[in-house]
Every structure is written in C-alpha cells, then in structure tokens.
C-alpha cells in the first residue's frame, strides 16, 4: 500500500497503572475512568515493544504507529532518523502521588549489552527530558549527584539505605524543563504532573525504592543494583532546570528548551496564530495549556491540553490558532 502524504495524526493515550501514580490523568485527557488503580503515566505517542499508539482520526483511524512506520516510514519521518525502523521517540504524561524510585537508564551501547533485543525488536538507551505542568510547594525532583559525591560514597549510602542524601534535589516550579542524559541518576518526587519526551525505550534500572511495598503484590519491587552501577555516570553532578533560549518575544513567545542528538523541544506561548511544521521533517505538537485549532490542507483539528498531534514529514506546514492564550510544546524528531 503506497502512501504519498499523511495529514495530522492523533493517537489514543495508553494508560499505565503504577504504585506511585495518581488519579488526574483520565480527566486531563478527557477520558472516562476505566480503572480504580492509580495511573502513573499515559503514553501518548509510542512505538515501543507491544505498546503501540493507535490512530484515532482520519483515513488511518485504527492503524497503529508501528503499522504506519512499516508501510510508509518516509512519509512519516522524511529526512528524520528512525530507531532501527521504529519511531524514535516516546512521549508521556506523568502524575505522581508518591515518589518514583531512584533510578538510572542506560545509553545505547549499554542497553544492547544488558538487554539484547529479540529478533525484530530494538534495544535503545534512554535520554529523556521533563517539563513540569503542576507542582506543590514541597514537591521535589532529584537530578544528578551532589557536588563531590564519588562512587565509593554513593555505594556506601546505597548500603545504608540513605541514597537520597547523595542526590541533588530542588523544588520544581511550573514550566521548569530538566534534561537527563542517559546515566544520570534521578527520581521524580510526589505531587507532580509533567510531560516527558524520551528515546523509544522502556529500560529502567532501580537503585532505591524508598523501602516501599507494592500493594499489588505485597512485596518490595525488584532493584537492579549491578546494572544501575554499571550505567551510572558518576561525573554527572547537579542537574538544574534548563535556561530557555528565547527566539521571539512578541506577539508569540518562542523558546528553545533542548537540542541534543535524540530530540529537540520548543515551547510556544501563543496569543496569535502561528505556523508550525517543517516540510520533510516530522514534528509533534503537544498542547499543555489552553485550547485552539490546528489548520492544515487536510483538516481542522480542535486541540487542547492533554492532546498530541503528529505532523508527518509529507504534511508540510500547519497553523495553530489559539483561543485566547495557549501554551504548546513542539517536539523535534532528530534529523
């Protein structure tokens, strides 16, 4: 089946229960509650393992992202890079009622050594970034090691059950963006909502889980000490929120938050219409506050916080028309 062009693609979120999760994500996405379990994450764009996002609009409604990447990768990505045939990025929203484990993710080389892929699959490392949507006064993020902490001090604290004392932490505020290269020890604290962009990977190695018992099993969750120590970058000291690079102030504020080899991230604060999308590149639009319309040659899409819309490479430009003030994240797929 030859596909020359795609219009904007919308996807159904995948709701993921977690021992540390909250109860806000069904409402955030405008979906009826289908589980009494706490929901920690929604995977809103995924081509990872069996977790494949499903299109919910237009001609290709019911198809998965994996199917579209199989039959028309060039139409989706253009000159952007795939991850061994998969869509290279995984996008999520998180809601934390309790802190996540202290954890670390491997880089690509470590991932292939520690978790060799099954035939037809892919094993990637996990560089990620967060944008804070909601926080409380006592909310914490743990990102990187405190200055001067070496491996010996880190392992000693791990044995004593006081690992958090070696971690750099701060009180995040709405709008903070934190970039976490693979190998950075980190944890997301309680009472936060955030957006996450990462490589297409689900490899997480837990170092410490706050002596927590999983209510679903009655047992502590497994730790991965050997793998974690292998993957930890002990030169990665305190990680602070990024300082945005402002490209435009008026009428719309355009900020570059991140540029690295795996993804880019912009924040658009809109009060007037703005053109988005780049011919022959794939972009993803993620409204996080307010609502508006996305106009293209293919359709007009009503968009609001909690939605995501992929702009495939063959689609070209689109125009966002905000209804009042609107904040949108623009995810750049690597070229």
Automatic annotation (TrEMBL):
Which example biological process does GO assign this protein? carbohydrate metabolic process
User: May I ask which residue range the UniProt record assigns to the signal sequence?
Assistant: none
Q: Which residues form the Phosphomannose isomerase type I catalytic domain?
A: 11-115
Task: Fetch the InterPro entries from UniProt.
Answer: Carb_Metab_Reg_Kinase/Isom (IPR051804), Man6P_isomerase_Firm_short (IPR014628), PMI_typeI_cat (IPR046457), RmlC-like_jellyroll (IPR014710), RmlC_Cupin_sf (IPR011051)
Q: Which domain of life is it from?
A: Bacteria
Per UniProt, the cofactor note for this protein states:
Binds 1 zinc ion per subunit.
- UniProt: Zn(2+) binding residues: 105, 128, 186
Q: Which cofactor does it need?
A: Zn(2+)
Please tell me whether the keyword Isomerase is annotated for this protein. Answer: yes
**What Gene Ontology molecular-function terms does this entry list?**
mannose-6-phosphate isomerase activity; zinc ion binding
Keyword annotations for this protein, in alphabetical order, are: Isomerase, Metal-binding, Zinc
Query: Which catalytic residues are annotated?
Result: 206
Q: Do the record's keywords include Protein biosynthesis?
A: no
List, alphabetically, the PANTHER family matched: FRUCTOKINASE, TRANSCRIPTIONAL REPRESSOR MPRA
Q: What is this protein called?
A: Phosphomannose isomerase type I catalytic domain-containing protein
State the organism of origin. Tuwongella immobilis
């Amino acid at each position: 089946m030859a596909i020359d062009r795609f219009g904007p693609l919308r996807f159904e979120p995948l709701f993921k229960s977690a021992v540390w999760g909250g109860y806000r994500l069904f409402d955030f996405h405008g979906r009826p509650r289908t589980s009494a379990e706490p929901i920690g994450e929604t995977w809103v764009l995924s081509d990872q393992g069996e977790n494949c996002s499903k299109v919910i609009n237009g001609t290709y409604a019911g198809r998965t992202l994996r199917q579209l990447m199989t039959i028309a990768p060039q139409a989706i990505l253009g000159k952007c890079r795939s991850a061994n045939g998969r869509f290279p990025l995984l996008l999520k929203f998180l809601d934390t009622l309790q802190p996540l484990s202290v954890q670390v993710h491997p880089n690509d080389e470590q991932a292939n050594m520690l978790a060799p892929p099954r035939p037809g699959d892919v094993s990637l490392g996990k560089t990620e970034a967060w944008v804070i949507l909601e926080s409380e006064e006592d909310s914490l993020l743990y990102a990187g090691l405190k200055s001067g902490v070496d491996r010996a001090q880190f392992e000693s604290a791990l044995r004593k059950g006081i690992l958090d004392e070696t971690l750099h932490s701060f009180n995040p505020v709405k709008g903070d963006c934190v970039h976490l290269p693979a190998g950075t020890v980190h944890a997301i604290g309680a009472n936060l909502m955030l957006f996450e962009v990462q490589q297409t990977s689900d490899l997480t190695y837990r170092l410490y889980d706050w002596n927590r018992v999983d209510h679903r099993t009655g047992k502590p969750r497994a730790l991965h000490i050997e793998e974690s120590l292998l993957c930890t970058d002990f030169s990665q000291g305190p990680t602070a929120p990024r300082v945005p690079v402002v490209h435009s102030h008026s009428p719309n504020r355009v900020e570059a938050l991140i540029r690295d080899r795996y993804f880019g991230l912009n924040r658009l604060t809109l009060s007037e219409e703005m053109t988005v999308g780049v011919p022959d590149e794939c972009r993803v639009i993620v409204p996080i506050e307010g609502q508006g319309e996305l106009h293209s040659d293919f359709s007009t899409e009503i968009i609001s916080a909690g939605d995501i819309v992929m702009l495939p490479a063959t689609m070209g430009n689109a125009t966002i028309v905000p209804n009042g003030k609107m904040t949108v994240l623009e995810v750049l797929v690597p070229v």
